[in-house]
Amino acid sequence: MTAGEALRKYTSILQQAGIEEAVGEATVLLCHVLRLGKAEIFAQPERTLSGGELTLLDGLTARRLRHEPSAYITGHREFFGIDLLVDPRVLIPRPETETLVEAAIEFGRSWVARNQRRMLAADIGTGSGAIAIALAVHIPEVLVYAVDISPGALDIATLNVRRHGLDDQIILMQGNLLEQINQKLDLIVANLPYIRGGELAGLQPEVYLHEPMVALDGGDRGTDVIEAMLRQVPGKMAPGGALFLEIGAGQEERLTPIVRDILPGSDVTLVKDLAGIDRCMRIGYTE
């Protein structure tokens, strides 16, 4: 069987099972089996698969049909142009989180240009290390404290930091939100759980059955973990710094008054993602 024939066959299998974006999913699995990039797959449709490769592709497809995410099957996910190792100990990085990262990088570069010194930042709930790594790659002058409560997540983050040669810019820490940080921060970025506990069972099986609940469950209100972190911010942020939060649709209505109460005088602005949803909350700190 050729690569082109395999792509058509396994796309059809996934489509019949109701898997969304079946062409893309089949392409990811085929690329993984053949150890080729997408462009190479499409440029070599006549490339013949060996019996072993077909057996492996059958096995990977069977896993995908059981709703295991392709990122966990292949062990990789690209985020912000960066290849990351992932497994079920960490949340799979989402495209909408790139909105958060873009806003944080823009602020960070501007801050460095104004202050002409190394920036101290924190990525709270680092998971795979995706946000911390993106910040370090795009802001060479930053030192990032990457914090997570999960030892397993920190194992994956450690691998990713080392793969990208960022040990001198990223310090990994196990802890509860900001509790372990004893320095004034110029930038805090956090993609914390923001799904209501009662809504978790209604998520796609790829998410509910496979991704870590600790990275998804935002408590009864959906904002419980975010609110807990906000209460730790006073005394942890330097004047002129900023806090960037990823939030769920409509959560700005609950969080904005909480922010203004905890951080009086702070400047709150919202950034929409590509779907037009207020996805990022930017909190400027002046005191």
Describe what this molecule looks like in 3D.
By secondary structure, the chain is α/β, with parallel strands linked by helices. It has two domains: 3-66, Ubiquitin-associated (UBA) domain (Helicase, Ruva Protein, domain 3, Orthogonal Bundle); 97-284, Rossmann fold, CATH 3.40.50. It is 40% helix and 19% strand. The chain contains eleven helices and nine strands. It has a seven-stranded mixed sheet, with helices on both faces. A two-stranded antiparallel ribbon has the order 1-2. A hairpin with a 5-residue loop joins strand 8 and strand 9 (278-284). Helix 1 (3-16) packs across helix 2, helix 2 runs antiparallel to helix 4 and helix 6 (97-115) packs parallel to helix 7. The longest helix is centred in the middle third of the chain and has 19 residues, at 97-115. The radius of gyration is 21 Å and the shape is elongated. The protein starts with a helix and ends with a strand. The model has no long low-confidence stretch (mean pLDDT 94).
Topology:
Blueprint: H1 3-16, H2 22-34, H3 38-43, H4 51-65, H5 70-74, E1 76-79, E2 82-85, H6 97-115, E3 119-124, H7 130-138, E4 142-148, H8 151-163, E5 170-174, E6 185-190, H9 205-208, H10 224-230, E7 237-246, H11 252-262, E8 267-272, E9 278-284
Helix pairs in contact: 1-2, 2-4, 6-7
